[in-house]
Write a structure and sequence with these properties.
heterodimer, A: alpha/beta, Rossmann fold, B: mainly alpha, Ammonium transporter fold, two-stranded antiparallel ribbon, 13 helices, 59% helix, 1% strand, binds iron/sulfur cluster
Amino acid sequence: MTLPEKVILPLQQNIGAPAAALVKKGDKVKTGDKIGESKSFVSALLHATVSGEVEGIIQVINPASGRLCDAIVIASDGLDTTADFQPVKDVSALTNEEIIAKIKDAGIVGMGGATFPTHVKLVPPKDKIVDTLIMNGCECEPYITSDHRVMLEYGDKVLAGLGLIAKVLSIKNVYLAIEDNKENAIEHLAKLIDEAKYNFQVIPIKTRYPMGAEKTLVKTVINKEVPIGGLPLDVGAVVQNVSTAKAIYDAVYEGKPLIERVVTVTGNIKTPKNLLVRFGTPIKNLIDYCGGTTGGEVIMGGPMMGIAQFDLGFPITKGTNCILVKDALTIKESDCINCGRCVEVCPMGLLPTLYPKYVKKGRYADCKASYVENCVECGACTYSCPANIPIVQYIKIAKKEIIKRKASK
Amino acid sequence: MAEGNLQVSPGPHLWHGLSVSKIMYIVVIALLPPTGAAIYFFGYRALTVIITSVVFAVLTEFVVKKMRGKPFVMDGSAIITGLLLALTLPPTINLWMVALGAIFSIAIIKEAFGGLGHNIFNPALSARAFLTASFGVEMTTWTTSTGFTADAIATATPLSKSVAWQGGYLPLFWGNIAGSIGETSAFAIIIGAIILISLRIIDWRIPATYVGTVAILSLIIGKDPVLYVLGGGLLLGAVYMATDYVTSPITHKGRIIFGVGCGIITMVIRALGGLPEGVCYSILLMNAVTPLIDRYVKTRPFGLVKVAKSKT
Ligand code: SF4
Ligand code: SF4
């Protein structure tokens, strides 16, 4: 889509430490210039996504955490002059360290929403044996089609990106888990794998929310359960998102940092689309570009886990896969009737109905004893609750409270 | 769009749409076949019993909610209680007893415990037990099912201990036998069960394990399992009452335990007790242990490693 006049780049777009700004008001930057960096290993670099002049550093409210965070504002000069990207001619000559360094330099994070810095994932602790790489080709949530688009349009790059990860981690078993409702993506990637003679295996997965969640995906593909509080790494698996794999290709082969991504714009939208969007573009620009909206709630992310926005000036960040506009639900909570639907749908094997009851009485220790921390906040319980109990909200309260109590000890 | 029009609500932003009252009305619809069968086989008497029970149940709910200062929602649950109570009563019962039972079920068993979702016992069954305890004779006087045409005459139910059943299997299936007005027609109840199970309103595990346990145990003690399954209130209880969400366990495993438990107690009462029937008391007894089942029978959290398991 057309470049915005101004981009707003929050310094924290990843899990881990925020970056510190490397530029100040009045600095001229080119597209792809490094503008934020952190000394911490678990953090990601930040790059300018347009060329122009730094307007200043402002504070924005991070819609996910509700906390304030700094953001660099760049006024575009409309030229999109790029920094000097350095493509690599012979990638096979690169050492693993060089590959990881390039990925780190490109500021790549998990683009499925978790935004965990990717280079960290590529340096597993020495005592862990990693033998499986799974490409997550399951859309995180209903309505979202951005990963599907990426698989169709950049299939070869995605595969090359996966090849690099497999090489760095010396993994032999590479699976491409793709939802079975994306037949064309399955066929397309299988064909590309054939042509390029990759030793990858495409695995069609039954479309069932929340399949895009790492733990459920690992279980489905290699039938191993990630222990409570653990990572896929604990069962020897690494999961990579489709867009992340493509970003790795761009970084290593073309020397291009992560400055844009595919975002689904859908719902009450005149012409719903998947757009290739520079980070920092305000939500409003995307909606206007798609012909505007008939109104409702503007949600960043999908319908289940996405967060309703109160400011359309807020920018697209590395973890934004979808902008969804839909009519808000009115919630009329009534008493739990013990129907068991939430229990049936919970992918983590929990008893979701307990948490609202405990939280209302302040029984946080009981929440913990009932494994509330195992909850992935997928929202399936709330979605199916006939009494309309916002179970996930109570769970979030419980989790926050547990962390707070731990910290104060 | 103007920024002022932005709506903000917490996620998830989708809802299944099956509300408590929708569920309740589907149950009401699934109760129509046995209700129809009751009227077909027991005529005006059944009709008046049903109307009295439902009207008093709903009225009581209305009055109690007003007294407690809570909003009255026509969520259908009082209709279910009224219908279910009526279906478990004999056709000759006095109407004032029906009204008393309906008031008791809603006011004492449901609302006094805190309303829908908080009651421990199934309201309809509790009221039936209460009426049996208070009016033993009226509650165990059975008549033939002669519909609207002829006068009914007193007779014994198929499960009676003093008279052996000689009517064959077909009447047991269709329902032209003696019994509580809604329990006699297996055919009608099975239609209701199909509706409820196919729409996933009730969990098949409870009726299946309940009926299965009764069938197997009757075989073991050398009784006719068909008679034991179809001849009394088992199907009505297993489909509509043992599956009451509020008073049955929440997990799959818990529900299986619940169904088997109901089956065992029913057979113990029928085989060893003085009563010909045991469905009502067995479900009430299992209602009482449901909190215990829910406390100890839990789902296994995803990723719970074996070492930690001993802690649960
Ligand atoms: S949000 Fe609900 S359904 Fe999803 S994992 Fe948590 S408790 Fe289970
Ligand atoms: S889905 Fe809702 S009403 Fe049903 S048991 Fe869970 S919390 Fe209770």
